[in-house]
Amino acid sequence: MSRRRTGLALVAAMAGAIGLVSAAFVSSADDVAPSRLAFADVTVSAPSSVLAGEPFDVSIDGLRSGADVEVLVRTSYTSMSLPFTADGSEAVVALDSAELAAGLVVIDVVSEDRAGTTVVDVLPGDAVGPLDLYLGPRTVIADGVDHSMLVAVPIDEFGNPVASGTSVAHRAILADGSSATLEAQTLGLLSFATLPATTVSGRTVIAVDVGDATGPGRSFENVPGPPVEFVLEAEEVRGTTTAWFADGTTLRTIRTSVLIDRYDNVVSDGTAVTLALDGPDGTSLLTSTTIDGVARFVVESPTRPGTITATASAADRSSTDLAIDVRPAIDEFEVTARHVGDRMIVAIGPVLLTTGFFVPDGTVAIVSVDSTTDDSSTGDSGGDVAHVDVVLDDGMGELIVDDAFGTPPPGSLVTVEILGVEASATIGVER
After folding, report:
1. Domain end call among 74, 103, 123
2. Contact 322/335 with Cβ under 8 angstroms?
3. Residues 6+ apart with CB under 8 A from 421
4. Residue 404: inside a domain
5. Same-domain pairing of 352 and 405
6. How far is CA 27 from CA 108, 176, 343, in A?
7. pTM of the predicted protein model
8. Among 68, 100, 108, 241, which residue is least crowded by beta carbons within 10 Å?
9. Which CATH number goes with the domain that contains 319?
10. CA quadruple 283, 284, 289, 292: dihedral, nearest 10
């Protein structure tokens, strides 16, 4: 690539009281032919162009023997001064283009009241490896619309960008297993190619060739898009679909179907999914992430029978609703209530699960005593309802209330609720 630049060389030679100014204006390499330019009393000659890395000579004619001479070499990046003393009217200065940036090089010669200039175009060489490559973004949506871009900065062995218009070949192995070749050309310092996403998730790998030079492969991931609508299901227990029971302790699993995008790509592992539950114990939210496209949620059985409605969402998609029927976890149980002396005793149990085992130790029974009375003679009806928690052990529980604290009268109704199942008894008197 040739860098075009505009240079202005101005040298003033003073002779007595009269000033003589001459100037040469170079706007491009086309203005430099021929390469021998007469400037004042000194003629400077050099090749009109050289290949980067090639040495070349600058011939100077018109010097005065013994005079101090300064050769000023200017490139687009730097400048350097080469002073010497003339040994005759002619001199030759050797320059190495490897030390000069590709592009126009302006060479000015000044000696006392004499000056001259010329311009040399240093041409870049062929690209060498490894090529400098930049790719981004590193992930694209696998929808056939998104894209990534690869930028190549090919340089020659001296670090010069290659000439504009140099062909750059991009070899790609796409995520769907097919291959493609994209051609581009350098412009200025670099080349670029737009690499489209596939509709298949996976990795696209790209290599770049510029002539005989190549570079390290670059890659980007085609990731699945948002999922389409999906469904929920309650996982089976030991291979058998078992009803849910309201024991408040059993852990059950709700899972999603395999989440896929509109091109049937399984969503990436780690995709966040939220599960909303609305059931007998109220509402709750659980979060999980997908593994192999499936999200699983561990749900504790409620403490009351009823229906759980579950709905999951991922990105901007929601599942269909899943209704789960939660059955009572215990069978009917016995409750007795009686006055014994100055105490009231409520006996609960045995309380068995539907599986035939005792309810877990620590299960809470809620005892409610309604001491409402109906006095028809006064027309007054009233009373209090007291609630007491009783913790069961080995499926049994007992509540003892001393008369000193007040006990409901005989005939009052005692109701016991355990895991959403109720049983009741009327307080009797034991004689």
Report:
1. 123
2. no
3. 305, 328, 329, 330, 332, 333
4. yes
5. yes
6. 16, 52, 116
7. 0.67
8. 241
9. 2.60.40.10
10. -40
Asked if residue 1 is part of any domain, the answer here is no
The b-or-e profile of 118-129 (16+ CB within 10 A means b, else e) is bbbbbbbbbbbe
What is the token pair recorded at 385? 């309802």
DSSP of 126-154? ---SSPEEEEE-SEEESSSS-EEEEEEE-
371 inside domain: yes
Do 264 and 305 fall within a single domain?
Answer: yes
In order of 19, 232, 237, 306, the CA distances from 323 in angstroms are: 102, 10, 17, 10
Residue 271, both tokens: 């995709």
Token pair 């998104």 in the structure block, residue: 146
Tokens 């400037």 belong to 39
SS3 call for 52: coil
Task: Give the up-direction half-sphere exposure of residue 225: CA atoms within 13 A in the CB hemisphere.
Answer: 18
- Regarding whether 97 and 16 lie in a shared domain, the answer is yes
Order of all β-strands in the sheet with 55-61: 37-39, 42-45, 55-61, 90-96
Residue type, 7: G
Assess if residue 94 is contained within a domain. Answer: yes
Place of tokens 């059993």: 250
CA-angle at 158, arms to 156 and 162, nearest 5°: 30
Name the domain count of the chain: 4
168 shares its domain with 262? no
| Structure token pair of residue 286 | 């659980």
> Among 283, 300, 328, where does a domain finish?
328
Give every CB contact of residue 295 below 8 A, 6+ residues apart in sequence. 255, 256, 259, 271, 273, 275, 288, 289, 312, 314
Please give the chain's pLDDT, 431 residues, in tens. 333 322 222 222 222 322 322 333 333 334 444 444 444 579 999 999 999 999 999 999 999 999 999 999 999 888 999 999 999 999 999 999 888 889 999 999 999 889 999 999 999 999 999 999 999 999 999 999 999 999 999 999 999 999 999 999 999 999 989 999 999 999 988 999 999 999 999 999 999 999 999 989 999 999 999 999 999 999 876 554 568 999 888 899 999 999 999 999 999 999 999 999 999 999 999 999 999 999 999 999 999 999 999 999 999 899 999 999 999 999 889 999 998 888 889 999 899 988 888 998 999 999 998 876 544 444 444 456 678 899 999 999 999 887 655 677 888 899 999 999 999 999 887 75
User: Which residue range is the domain that position 316 belongs to?
Assistant: 232-328
Same domain for 320 and 366, yes or no, is no
Question: HSE on the CB side for 95, CA within 13 Å?
Answer: 29
